[in-house]
Design a protein that fits this description.
- It contains 18 helices and 7 strands.
- The chain has about 400 residues and is mainly alpha-helical.
- It is globular, with a radius of gyration of 24 Å.
Length: about 400
């Protein structure tokens, strides 16, 4: 059933005020009870799950927080694919190899990928988050910004309680309601959760058979390709057409080889029809990757390109492969949010539509920047950095 936006059911004050107060929150919880009853949840579950909920102001702060700085790709990767995490991942891969091999046979997801997701999501179960999930979800459901989505997630969380999978007190997780070893949202839990241990419950906090089976079932269900990797690091010739990069431009490995792309060690790419997209997460001066269909599935888990590359690289390292061949440029620094917004404003002013300036680098910003770079005979990698900001400033100053 499609959920209606809860903010349509609530007093007008909730639609006009950025911050909830306690009275508004409790009125909202009363409406959430009605929604739960309409969804067929039993009264005992509704009372158990929605009684004595507390407004989580910290959750609203985190939901609205925008970072002052953006990490560079290297900062992101180096913070997540550490030598300590690689070592621990290899130890855990060896420890749980029989279980992981059985899950690979059942679902087609290789063990090192499951361990890599586990490592990035909760550092192998060392920290799940300690927020009360139902309180967090109710707070976000009562905030008009994303009421519809979080109302649905709250209903799914109540279904988990009703199914006897976990108690309310044990249901703790991230500020946004992600739970367990691999941080499933409640809707992912109810749709893809698997009782891997056979005890009649799905326990993503305490049962690794359930965790690994559920994670593999999710990936398999959204199209994970058995026997394929996520992608690979590659070398690109200096005279390459950088405008060919991006997830929306796929070519066969054979075609990429014809364009001069090599494996990271300088050897030839396999001459296969398997399609791949070329990614330049740090621009044309950074590393280059060809990514396959399984990379798209990793991005279904988390839509960040840097996250997906980190999962793939961590999986490779856990499986015994080495570090990346490319190294970071010494002069790159992250842009401030206000600097990204200035890039967007200047692109718009020059006739390159980057959308509404918001300080967030998205598809429109990259496309607009790539068109600007092409028009000025610059490497058209669509990558916003300090050098591009300075080029835009100089052009703008020269036209005044």
């Amino acid at each position: 059933m499609r959920y209606l936006a809860l903010c349509l059911l609530l007093p007008a004050a909730l639609n006009t005020q950025a911050a909830l107060n306690e009275t508004e929150f409790q009125a909202c919880v009363d409406e959430l009870r009605n929604v739960a009853a309409q969804q067929g949840l039993d009264s005992a579950t509704i009372d158990n799950g929605l009684t004595n909920l507390e407004l989580q102001r910290r959750v609203l702060e985190l939901d609205r927080r925008q970072p002052e700085f953006f990490q560079t790709f290297w900062q992101y990767l180096d913070a997540r694919v550490t030598e300590q995490r690689v070592k621990r991942g290899r130890e855990l891969l060896a420890r749980y190899r029989p279980l992981l091999d059985q899950i690979y046979a059942d679902y087609g997801v290789r063990p090192e990928y499951l361990v890599a997701f586990w490592g990035l999501e909760t550092n192998f179960g060392s920290y799940f988050g300690n927020m009360p999930v139902l309180d967090s979800l109710a707070t976000l459901a009562c905030d008009p910004r994303r009421s519809d989505y979080f109302t649905g997630e709250l209903m799914e969380a109540l279904k988990i309680l009703q199914g006897g999978h976990i108690s309310r007190d044990e249901m703790r997780g991230s500020w946004a309601g992600a739970m367990g070893h691999t941080q499933f949202m409640p809707s992912t839990f109810t749709r893809y959760g698997v009782d891997g241990s056979g005890d009649g419950r799905i326990d993503l906090w305490n049962s690794l058979p359930d965790v690994f089976a559920s994670s593999a079932n999710y990936l398999s269900s959204i199209g994970w390709q058995r026997g394929e990797r996520w992608g690979r690091e590659v070398r690109v010739p200096d005279d390459f057409d950088w405008g060919l990069s991006g997830l929306d431009q796929r070519k066969s490995l054979a075609r990429w080889a014809e364009l001069g792309v090599l494996a990271a060690d300088g050897s030839s790419l396999p001459g296969r029809d398997m399609e791949a997209a070329l990614l330049l997460p740090a621009g044309h001066r950074g590393p280059a990757f060809l990514v396959y269909r399984n990379f798209d599935r990793i991005m279904r888990w988390n839509t960040s390109i840097s996250y997906a590359l980190s999962v793939g690289h961590l999986a490779d390292r856990i499986a015994g492969m080495g570090k990346l061949e490319a190294r970071p440029a010494s002069d790159q620094r992250p842009l401030k949010r206000e600097e990204v917004e200035e890039i967007q404003q200047r692109l718009n002013g020059l006739g390159f539509d980057s959308g509404r300036p918001d300080g967030m680098v998205g598809r429109m910003t990259r496309a607009a920047l790539r068109e600007y770079q092409r028009s000025r005979d610059l490497p058209a990698d669509g990558y916003p950095d300090v050098a591009m900001l300075e080029a835009l400033r100089q052009e703008g100053d020269s036209q005044q």
